[in-house]
Amino acid sequence: MAANLTLLAADFAILQKNADQLFLLIMGCMVFLMQSGFAFLEAGSVRSKNTTNILIKNMLDIFITGLCYWMFGFAFAFGQVGNPFIGHSDFFAGSLRYSPDPAFWFFQFVFCATATTIVSGAMAERTEFVCYLVYCVVIGGFMYPVVTHWAWSDVGWLANGPNGIVYKDFAGSGVVHVVGGTTAFVGAKLLGPRIGRFKDGQAVQISGHTVPLVALGAFILFFGFLAFNGGSQASISGAGDGQVVSNAMVNTLVSGAAGGLVAMMVKRSGLLGGVNWSLLTSINGALSGMVAICAAADSAYSWGALVIGIVAGFVYCAWSKLVVKLGVDDPLDAVAVHLGAGLWGVLAAPILASDVGLVAEDKQYALLLFGWNLLGAVVIMAWCVLVSGLMFGTLKAFGILRVPPEIELRGLDIPKHGEPAYPTESYGHGWTIMPPDHSPDLFGPDGKPYPLYGPDSAPNRLPQPVYLKMNNGPRPVSRPPSRSSGRHVYNPSSVPPVTYFNHGAVVEDTYM
Questions:
Q1: Contact 349, 292 (CB under 8 A)
Q2: Residue 503's closest CA among 512, 494, 495?
Q3: Are 220 and 266 in contact (CB under 8 A)?
Q4: Where are the beta strands (DSSP E) in 344-496?
Q5: Contact yes or no for 395/401 (Cβ under 8 A)
Q6: In whole angstroms, what is the distance from residue 331 CA to residue 349 CA?
Q7: What's the N-to-C CA distance of the chain in angstroms?
């Protein structure tokens, strides 16, 4: 009988481990899907001439970060041998042949990839391709793993504070989002704004080329955030695990919904400029709410999640204006969403967490925890400023941080990748024959731009369509394909300077 019970207990332990691993793999796959959400969100937020460029950079986040995290990033983060600053064992994920806990490695990797991909949006449309190769290695292989070790490993200094204080950041408001947001801010600041983003000290709106793609990416991110926060419990077989996971997912939804509604109403009030119901502002507000709740997703009451989301909506709006005031060009508002809301989430956890916050019984511990979380956030930001400043500063010193102006003006897709996202020769219904590329060249043989007005101006260099005639007379002809809103009808002799054709051939006076 005793032998049977021992065998049954062993089988049950195996079942528990398998259930936990399956849980991590499923949650990890859902978080992995967030990479496509980031890709769509960023692609829709840039101009069409840079779409291929931003998409391949999101691919590189997976490729480069995956290899670096496997080789040495995981060792720095969760190596079984280490000190309070960094781990230094379990390289190549613990074994060159078989990882001791591949499910845990995979789940931590998708978090690392998320921190890395935040940066690409803030630096979009003017960054050298080599720069992305470098920063994926540095962030995914060193910067982020070190912060992870501080907060989430057994020996990290943030996880072993004085008097038994443990840094409270359940799903990474600070560890993931403050890291990504701070690095994005430093990178965008050193990189400088896009040509035409600021004129006479005033911000000039540069719109992305497709709002539907942004919305699609946002829905995927909303879905992924449920696993991002719920999966951070890292197990499902223990007592209370299901309750924690469920609470984290519900809080994620509540906080995100509150953040989205608040940001939309702030935009409608005119405080952000323009009195309208903005989809893009609502999306960023919702993402901010989901970022902010990460730190306390497991333990906040639902009303606490509502409070965190409401404040996150205001925080996003304030940070969005602050970033512009500082002269930083962030096409995705990544700094406001991830740094601003992430910082608020780290500070909100010691206040609203039901187990260790001010709403719990031990007020003294909550106050100490607030100070410890604040210290952790400051040190994390300082670490990211130091490492990213050295990295981006070195790249800038060697002239490989930003693309030349003529490349930026024409768009990165063709000169860097030879693959325009919207090749003009692939559009049309066959009744109008257009040259392979009906966009004019803004630059002459000497490399200088053509004037916008006059007989040799760029709009007058548009090639003329060729009309097909049938036996029963000419066929009606529609305007050639474009990425414009439809307000400007195609007319080669009177193309407005503000019209955009595919990869950016017709532009504003600033030659954006």
A1: no
A2: 512
A3: no
A4: 432-433, 466-467, 469-470, 473-474
A5: yes
A6: 29
A7: 80
Alpha carbon 309 to its chain's center? 19
3-state class (DSSP) for residue 433: strand
CA distances from 13 to 19, 105, 202, 236, 494 (A): 10, 21, 63, 13, 75
Report pLDDT digits (tens) over 72-96.
999 999 998 999 999 999 899 877 6
Token pair for residue 369? 């925890």
Q: Percent of the chain at pLDDT above 90?
A: 76
DSSP output for 210-278: -HHHHHHHHHHHHHHHHHHHHGGG--SSSTTHHHHHHHHHHHHHHHHHHHHHHHHHHHHHTTTSS-S--
| Category of 490 on φ-ψ map: left (φ > 0), alpha (ψ -120 to 50) or beta | beta
For 382, residues 6+ apart whose C-beta sits below 8 A from its C-beta are none
CB neighbourhood size of 103 (10 A): 20
Q: pLDDT tens digit string along 394-449?
A: 999 999 999 999 999 999 999 999 999 999 888 777 665 555 544 555 556 565 66
What amino acid is encoded at 123 in this protein? M
What's the rounded Cα separation, in Å, for the pair 367 and 295?
16
Which residues make beta-bridge pairs with 82? 87
